């Protein structure tokens, strides 16, 4: 009943927002929007046919209260797939558990978990001396906690394993949280705007932590947000047994309800989308025919609303928002820019290490092996962790309460996704340019010089794109923080008067022009000027290496984007090294699967003391050694510095300038660029952040949601994708 009521109201908002989103999409397609062109190439299918990670981990099974060794695989879709053991995976047997981690939090402390459990059912706390709901046999737990769905308990043997698994789990959560495709120019904005309108109708302004996962997961969270308090007050007092047992029962009840809500929500939302899609051809035909009249009608409505709202909005902005914009911006800029500087540093270090290894170990013959690893650097959770951690220090302090920001996690996650994208764009551009050069090279020395020259070209492009992406992120974050605050402040005096403007909209255009949306656009305009000015001033002052808007790189590489349209590069196929012996027996395809992160542990594992444990064979391949200069200790900055200086002398023949600059000279011909190195920033191996970027660090986590249970009926494909059903029928989409 509750699901039907919530979804019925949501679908009404969705239908309204669908027409507006369709109109905006067609208008954008016709009018276009000239923003700065990205300098780096964008990879279309980053991780096809790759496994992010696989390895053994101990899992706590709630049905028999025992810990078992499981083989965990993280395929390219970032679902957590748990098998009985590695042999079961290689034989393509069905997995025991599939977890879509959207909405989850990754915890590394049992105390932290128990605190969340105690808060989920107020008034029920274990007495001293009673066993808690969970005991971990090692000091290194990993717990996936969700406010509504079931929880997952894991542990490992060492702190190093825990750090790696934590990075892997957090990457899964981060990816699954971002489940609404940005490629959809109509459905995605219609959905997010409908969710926002629904919550605002219930006086819930500001950011929402559970806007994570795919559309069905988000709507399930929307229903549970209203349903769970009612369930808790009805069922909570009736639970029997000791406190830990009541907590365990409550978690199971919440999960069972969440599964039912998920099923019902999925069916009702799919039906609403189908109805809108059926109407789309008719709506789009009207838009294209009457585009000018619709725009004129909307501008007339906006002028009337502006005359009514703007004076009040400007007073509100001047008194309650404007004084705090610079403080919010500074709080956002510092950790974000440090994170992007760390992305630059990690990319530089990895390419420099590769160059060193190529010099020491055989040139072109080894290049494919190194490039295969480098090409997936952005999707290596452990190597990218230092970048993501920089966002941990993001704190809005008093501003968070003032502007009703429930959590900064939404901004942390968005910045981290931008970091991963920028890293992948830099790597893809580097490998594309290097691949183009390989046919012209003569021996190891030429290869070494080309790698250095291309690296410095890519770093220059990265600095420009990084500035563009960060400025856009800052503007969007400032709007996300201030607009809900303004809408809440203005609601008592403005919201009730909006109905009188409805008569200004022609009935034929009522599907594309909404009074509520136009009102919000007017409120946005009232604060947009101040936000744009604040970001512009930060760029003019060169704060955190932001470039001014007037600094535009026009056609610096006119043929580069044509290269990006070619067939994806397969380094292993094009430049094979020593042929590897073909594995025999079942599971050959899986043994040959390329893996981004190396296996953590190689030996057979057992828990340190018996607690219902079971030690299972743990086959795996050893973590490959890092190839370095024999004379240089691992991680030595002096060794990297020495090769950097030698490369600069040999390949450039000139002193490299210490500061980067963006030039406006006419683009050189491809032949000239191939022989004359570009002016580039001096990048020291130990610290290559872009000029003006400051350093300091932090870490980030993000929520996650749905999964399937222990019973899996149908056989699983080599890398499980799509939709899986548990024994209880709940669907979990990867």
From TrEMBL:
Database matches in PROSITE patterns? PH_DOMAIN
Q: Where is the PH domain?
A: 50-174
CDD domains (alphabetical): Niban-like
UniProt lists compositionally biased (Low complexity) regions at: 684-699
The protein's matches in InterPro entries, at most eight in alphabetical order, are given as:
Niban-like, Niban_1/2/3_dom, PH-like_dom_sf, PH_domain
Q: Where does the source fall among the domains of life?
A: Eukaryota
Region (Disordered), start-end ranges: 571-734
What SMART domains does UniProt report for this protein, alphabetically? PH
- Spell out the PANTHER family in the cross-references: NIBAN FAMILY MEMBER, PROTEIN NIBAN 2
Family under the similarity heading: Belongs to the Niban family.
What is the protein's name according to its record? Answer: NIBL1 protein
């Amino acid at each position: 009943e509750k699901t039907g009521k919530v979804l019925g109201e949501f679908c009404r908002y969705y239908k309204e927002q669908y027409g507006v989103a369709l109109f905006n999409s067609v208008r954008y397609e016709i009018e276009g929007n000239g923003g700065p062109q990205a300098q780096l190439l964008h990879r279309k299918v980053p991780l096809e046919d790759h496994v992010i990670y696989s390895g053994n981990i101990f899992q706590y099974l709630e049905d028999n209260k025992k810990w078992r060794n499981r083989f965990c695989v993280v395929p390219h879709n970032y679902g957590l797939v748990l098998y009985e053991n590695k042999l079961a995976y290689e034989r393509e047997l069905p997995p025991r558990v599939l977890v879509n981690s959207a909405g989850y939090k990754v915890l590394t402390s049992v105390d932290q978990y128990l605190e969340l459990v105690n808060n989920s059912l107020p008034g029920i706390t274990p007495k001293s001396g009673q066993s808690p709901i969970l005991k971990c046999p090692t000091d290194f737990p990993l717990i996936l906690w969700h406010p509504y769905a079931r929880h997952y308990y894991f542990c490992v043997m060492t702190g190093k394993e825990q750090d790696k698994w934590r990075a892997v789990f957090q990457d899964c959560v981060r990816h699954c949280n971002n489940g609404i495709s940005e490629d959809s120019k109509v459905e995605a904005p219609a959905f997010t705007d409908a969710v926002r309108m629904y919550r605002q109708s219930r006086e819930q302004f500001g950011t929402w932590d559970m806007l994570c996962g795919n559309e069905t997961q988000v709507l399930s969270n929307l229903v549970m947000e209203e349903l769970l308090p009612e369930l808790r007050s009805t069922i909570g007092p009736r639970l029997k047994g000791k406190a830990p047992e009541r907590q365990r029962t409550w978690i199971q009840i919440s999960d069972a309800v969440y599964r039912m809500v998920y099923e019902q929500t999925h069916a009702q939302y799919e039906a609403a989308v189908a109805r809108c899609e059926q109407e789309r051809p008719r709506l789009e035909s009207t838009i294209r025919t009457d585009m000018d009249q619709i725009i004129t009608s909307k501008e007339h409505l906006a002028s009337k609303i502006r005359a009514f709202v703007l004076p009040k909005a400007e007073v509100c902005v001047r008194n309650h928002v404007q004084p705090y914009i610079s403080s919010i911006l500074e709080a956002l800029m510092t950790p974000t820019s440090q994170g992007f500087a760390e992305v630059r540093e990690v990319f530089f270090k990895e390419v420099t290490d590769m160059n060193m290894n190529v010099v020491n170990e055989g040139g072109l013959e080894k290049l494919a092996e190194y490039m295969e690893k480098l090409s997936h650097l952005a999707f290596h959770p452990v190597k990218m962790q230092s970048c993501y951690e920089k966002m941990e220090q993001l704190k809005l302090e008093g501003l968070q309460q003032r502007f009703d920001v429930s959590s900064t996690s939404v901004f942390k996650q968005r910045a981290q996704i931008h970091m991963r994208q920028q890293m992948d764009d830099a790597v893809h551009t580097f490998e594309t340019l290097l691949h183009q050069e390989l046919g012209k090279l003569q021996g190891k020395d030429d290869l070494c010089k080309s790698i250095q020259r291309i690296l410095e070209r890519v770093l220059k492009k990265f600095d420009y794109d990084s500035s563009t992406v960060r400025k856009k992120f800052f503007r969007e974050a400032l709007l996300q923080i201030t607009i809900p605050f303004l809408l809440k402040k203005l609601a008592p005096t403005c919201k009730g008067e909006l109905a009188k403007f409805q008569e200004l909209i022609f009935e034929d255009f009522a599907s594309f022009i909404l009074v509520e949306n136009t009102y919000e656009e007017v409120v946005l305009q009232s604060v947009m000027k101040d936000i744009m000015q604040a970001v512009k001033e930060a760029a003019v002052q060169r704060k955190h290496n932001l470039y001014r808007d007037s600094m535009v790189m026009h056609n610096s590489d006119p043929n580069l984007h044509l290269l990006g349209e070619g067939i994806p590069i397969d380094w292993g196929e094009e430049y094979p090294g020593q042929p590897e012996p073909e594995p025999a027996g079942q599971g050959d395809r899986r043994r040959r699967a390329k893996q981004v992160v190396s296996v953590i542990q190689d030996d057979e594992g057992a828990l340190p003391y018996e607690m219902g444990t079971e030690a299972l064979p743990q086959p795996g391949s050893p973590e490959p050694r890092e190839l370095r200069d024999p004379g240089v200790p691992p991680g030595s900055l002096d060794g990297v510095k020495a090769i950097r200086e030698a490369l600069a002398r040999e390949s450039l023949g000139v002193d490299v300038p210490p500061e980067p600059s963006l030039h406006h000279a006419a683009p050189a011909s491809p032949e000239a660029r191939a022989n004359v190195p570009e002016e580039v920033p001096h990048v020291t191996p130990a610290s290559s952040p872009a000029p003006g970027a400051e350093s300091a660090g932090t870490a980030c986590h993000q929520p996650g949601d749905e999964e399937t249970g222990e019973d899996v009926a149908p056989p699983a494909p080599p890398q499980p994708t799509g939709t899986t059903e548990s024994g209880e029928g709940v669907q979990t989409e990867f």
